[in-house]
Amino acid sequence: MEAFDIAIVGAGLAGNLAALALADSGRRVALLAPPARSQDGRTTALMAQSIDFVRDLGLWEEIAGVAAPLETMRILDGTSRLFRAPPVSFRSSEVDLAAFGYNIPNAPFLEGLERRIDASETITRFRNKLDRLTAADDAVDLHLDDGRTIRAGLVVGADGRQSEVRRQGEISVRTWTYPQTALVLNFSHTLPHANTSTEFHTEHGPFTQVPLPGRRSSLVWVLSPKEAEAMRDLPLETLSRAVEERMQSLLGKVTVEAPPQCFPLSGMQADHFGKGRIVLLGEAAHAFPPIGAQGLNLSLRDVMVLRDLLRDPGQTAAAIGDAFDRRRRADIQSRTVSVDLLNRSLLSGFLPVQILRTAGLHLLSAIGPLRSVVMREGVEPGGSWKALRSGLRERVARKQA
What we know:
The protein is of the alpha+beta class. Helix content is 38%, strand content 30%.
């Protein structure tokens, strides 16, 4: 039986990044997951804190060429309701950042991660499914679907919403659904995007264009399930015209590059994010609609916290799951509630809800300091407090000088 310090189940973006981050310490890491069945055509917007994490792992140079900076994030009210919000633009320069983050296609990102993992001397890749977990005296045994068994001091579940690690660890989960489906595609356009992401708020949810290198963008278009299926089945030329019309021709003529993908929207949160020798990362622990570029960024904060806990000599593997659960609860719950409320406010036909949403966007449009707080918190939890402390220290230093 092979023994490892850590076994990570799931080889998506979160699982692969966790393997590289945790193997950096010299620990022996097993990474378990069968080969992907299809290429992921989606993109991921990583905020500045996550980009710094990717740089620390030495990965940025390899993916920088396919990434596009997000310098401006614009919200436009695309509803036909009585109370409509004004346009709101968030500019990274307002918070002294060159860019809020970067939009990265998932496929080349994953390919780069897999090359690094294959070259690592401390990561062993198993292209198998997990069959079951059993507790040993001072470790956990992972039984694979080919009959082999490996042993690990810590098991990390990064195996998605239907997590087998979560099920085997007897961690319950709360789920909910939305009457929405996300239509996901990439398109080219004749006018430059100027590194600006535009999010139209519609009665069915957000229509979000995010820049890619050159005159290309990715799109997440949230629709009712029937409308999303109808759009998916349109000829590409007809779909291109529909996207351009919804974009109000802001980017000129649109050409959809390949057939879109559809993803029904739902939410999920595990009752515990860790327990004993088990830790849950990413969509094994939490999932919500693709709004505000929060999904993978939240998952990478999971990885950062786990790495910090493993570096703490006072932490034992037997209790690290419980410590992780305590450390991650506030961030995960606050982000989940925020995204859920924003999404439901778009769907609600209740007039007071519409008025509150419109008033909130009016305030963000008119009050620069409030806008700065929201931008900093979107990039990094607690970022506004860090900026405030830094500003106070600078003022004190000037007075002393």
